[in-house]
């Protein structure tokens, strides 16, 4: 008589981000934050305020992001189309904040089981996605995404052991100190 735990088909661990995507008419916001149109970059001090600015815009979309999380969502979609629902489990680190809750809720709605380490001191990782003339400019603030605790994995080792497939990114391995 063991508990009804989900046995994932696919276990994915990575750097979860909440993409904050807005479509704008011109490069004003990009210029303000010294971002190059069509480029991807990591945020420095100059870019940090962009996340709150975009979050406050009415036309924003909040979308789970990060390479491994995008892979989890795509795999889940393909498995669900084959009648294999709820077979993807995703591990990562997010902050204990509004953006982390949004990320968890959107992921759950998509049918991906998220199991997150919640970092008390660091905000959820975000990516500013500014679309001008159909071209995206990305600026990532990894924040809590780089604070994954090995203790979280150790306490959930059954999930890992029961997976048929395991996926991660080299960036996850090199960006998490622990």
UniProtKB/TrEMBL annotation:
Assigned keywords, A-Z: ATP-binding, Kinase, Magnesium, Nucleotide-binding, Purine salvage, Transferase
InterPro entries the UniProt entry points to: Adenokinase, PfkB_dom, Ribokinase-like
The protein's required cofactors: Mg(2+)
GO terms (BP aspect): AMP salvage; purine nucleobase metabolic process; purine ribonucleoside salvage
Catalytic activity line of the entry: adenosine + ATP = AMP + ADP + H(+)
Enzyme Commission (EC) number: 2.7.1.20
One GO CC term on file: cytosol
Keyword Disulfide bond assigned: no
UniProt key word Acetylation: no
Annotated ranges, domain Carbohydrate kinase PfkB: 61-174
Pathway note: Purine metabolism; AMP biosynthesis via salvage pathway; AMP from adenosine: step 1/1
Gene3D superfamilies: 3.40.1190.20
Single GO MF descriptor: adenosine kinase activity
Family, as annotated: Belongs to the carbohydrate kinase PfkB family.
Reported function: ATP dependent phosphorylation of adenosine and other related nucleoside analogs to monophosphate derivatives.
Record's protein name: Adenosine kinase
């Amino acid at each position: 008589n063991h508990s009804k735990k989900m046995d994932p088909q696919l276990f994915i661990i990575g750097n979860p981000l909440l993409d904050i995507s807005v479509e704008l008419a011109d490069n004003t916001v990009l210029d303000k934050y010294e971002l190059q149109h069509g480029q991807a970059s990591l945020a420095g001090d100059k870019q940090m305020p962009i996340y709150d600015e975009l979050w406050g815009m009415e036309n924003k979309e909040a979308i789970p992001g990060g390479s491994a999380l995008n892979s989890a969502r795509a795999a889940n979609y393909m498995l669900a189309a084959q009648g294999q629902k709820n077979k993807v489990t995703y591990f990562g680190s997010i902050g204990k904040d509004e953006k982390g809750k949004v990320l968890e809720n959107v992921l759950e709605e998509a049918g991906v089981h998220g199991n997150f380490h919640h970092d008390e001191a660091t905000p959820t990782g975000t990516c500013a996605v500014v679309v001008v003339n159909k071209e995206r400019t990305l600026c990532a603030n990894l924040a809590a995404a780089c604070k994954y605790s090995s203790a979280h994995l150790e306490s959930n080792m059954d999930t890992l052991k029961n997976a048929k497939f395991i996926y991660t990114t080299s960036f996850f391995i090199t960006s998490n100190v622990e």
